[in-house]
Design brief:
four-stranded antiparallel beta sheet; 15 strands; about 500 residues; about 50% helix; binds adenosine-5'-diphosphate; 10 helices; seven-stranded mixed beta sheet; alpha+beta; Helix Hairpins; Heat Shock Protein 90
Length: about 500
């Protein structure tokens, strides 16, 4: 019964989790792209700064060789990323001290008319930037790690989950290694790649981040799951309440129908019983009237009284017969329709579940579940209800292990049969011929109208009811009704 709500909970949780995870990924992506753009801008600014420093050194030369040399020597103290500054006369580059690559780079710089990058040492994170000028050329040895302006850097200095590398051709210098600490398996990979905005140092800034399971918004997901569970729990509770209300209403309806039918039976029985004596009173009164006519004293009064008596008796008889006509169950045949016998039995068993539970009984319903009988659904359930109530009442004093209730549905030719067998004491042999008579009861407070009503209803629907004792003990009542379809053969 609760399975649909569990499925609903799972589906809702799944949809909500999906939306939440997508939103969380979008948030991560946004934040990541913003940080990556800042990183690219900061590194580009530094690269441009290096170009500017070289250009300034070249410009200072006409002011005096000493000024340029002094400025060059002071640079490492001012800019931490500048490790060394080299200066050599462009006309005589064969200075033994100089790294060989610088002379070649100076020639390239002369051709390109801007600074050029050379001698990348990826493991140390160093590279040289060379600008050919006259009379002297300059080269800066730059440490990439010191190039990072940590005060403006958008990532933590230690253990940042974001990896930042500078790539040039097939070389790669790691600026920030990026720690994957967000859970084991990868659920999302974020990446950004853009070339530094300085022609002399055309590094590609590659920023990446791997998001693992731990990066998922678990807190919000758990809240969603709990919220969905609460909603489904509420729906399930409402459903249980609704079912209980329906059951109570149905019980009430059954009770009302039972009462109405019992009243009908009562009136029918009364009418039947009273009609005969009234007819006799009428006949006797007529005879007395004739006798009085032959004997004088106060003949007129006697005649008048007896005539009155006759008139009253007739009226009483008429009233009773009118009453009987009025309570004859009208239109049972009009309400007949195909009814699934198995489903009708299940409905009534469900209504009586509290009773069967109380007796510790597990009703065994067996037989054809698709048989359809031609019946009035309400009358049919009423019959089954009465027969079951009788069976349960019969077993009230039976020891628990001997209690049993077996319901069997079967079809034969053009009829369907429902047999209700119980494990009670059975029907006393002397009671068997009178079971279906109105007001026959062996119970202390019994009205004795239940079986009579059942028979009337069954006959009205073209069926009948039989009762018998079982060889193994207990009674069996068999309801036979006209069959509509038998789908299985
Ligand atoms: P009530 O239940 O008011 O006595 P019913 O017409 O339903 O009226 O039943 C008439 C009688 O039939 C019962 O008093 C009882 O003696 C007998 N009877 C009905 N069902 C059973 C049964 N399952 N086992 C034994 N006796 C039964």
């Amino acid at each position: 019964m609760f399975l649909p709500f569990v499925v609903l909970w799972l589906s809702l949780s799944l949809v909500a989790s999906g939306i939440e995870v997508v939103a969380s990924h979008a948030r991560h992506e946004d934040a990541f792209q913003t940080d990556a753009r800042i990183i690219h801008r900061l590194l580009s600014q530094r690269a441009v700064q290096h170009e500017a420093i070289l250009a300034t050194l070249a410009l200072l030369q006409p002011g005096g060789q000493n000024a340029a040399e002094q400025a060059a020597q002071r640079l490492p103290a001012v800019y931490s990323q500048i490790l060394r500054v080299e200066r050599w006369m462009t006309a005589a580059p064969r200075d033994g001290r100089l790294p060989v690559a610088l002379a070649a780079a100076a020639a390239e710089s002369q051709r390109q008319r801007h600074a050029v990058l050379t001698a990348i040492d990826a493991s140390a994170g160093h590279y040289w930037l060379v600008l050919a000028a006259r009379p002297a050329s300059y080269a800066l040895e730059i440490d990439i790690h010191s190039m990072v302006p940590w005060d403006e850097w958008p990532l933590p200095r230690q253990d940042s989950p974001v990896r930042v590398v500078l790539q040039l051709d097939d070389q790669e210098i790691v600026v920030s290694p990026g720690v994957v600490h967000e859970g084991g398996a990868l659920v999302q990979r974020l990446s950004f790649s853009k070339t530094i905005a300085a022609d002399s140092q055309p590094f590609t800034v590659a920023v990446s981040r791997q998001l693992g399971w731990r990066s998922l918004p678990w807190g919000r997901l758990v809240l969603w799951w709990l919220g969905c569970a609460a909603l489904c729990g509420l729906l399930a509770w409402l459903q249980v309440q609704r079912r209980a209300r329906q059951r109570a209403e149905e019980m009430l309806r059954f009770g009302q129908i039972a009462r109405l039918n019992t009243l009908g039976e009562l009136a029918a029985g009364l009418a039947h019983e009273l009609n005969q004596p009234l007819a006799a009173v009428s006949a006797n009164a007529q005879a007395a009237s004739r006798l009085l006519n032959s004997e004088p004293p106060d003949l007129d009064t006697a005649r008048y009284a007896m005539t009155q008596a006759v008139g009253q008796a007739r009226r009483a008889a008429e009233v009773l017969s009118r009453l009987r006509r009025a309570i004859e169950r009208p239109g049972l045949a009009e309400r007949m329709e195909p009814v699934n016998l198995y489903a009708a039995v299940r409905n009534v068993l469900a209504l009586l579940q509290a009773e069967t539970d109380r007796l510790g009984l597990k009703p065994a319903l067996d037989g054809d579940a698709v048989l359809q009988v031609q019946a009035d659904p309400v009358a049919l359930e009423q019959i089954i209800h009465n027969l079951l109530i009788n069976a349960l009442q019969a077993m009230a004093d039976t020891p628990v292990p001997a209690r049993r209730l077996a319901l069997q549905i079967e079809a034969e030719d053009s009829v369907a049969r429902l047999t209700i067998a119980d494990g009670g004491p059975g029907i006393p042999p002397e009671a068997l011929p009178h079971l279906f008579e109105p007001f026959f009861s062996t119970k202390e407070n019994g009205l004795g109208l239940g079986l009579s009503l059942c028979e009337t209803l069954a006959t009205g629907m073209g069926g009948r009811i039989d009762a018998a004792n079982l060889a193994e003990g207990g009674a069996a009542f068999c309801l036979t009704l006209p069959l509509v379809i038998r789908e299985r053969n």
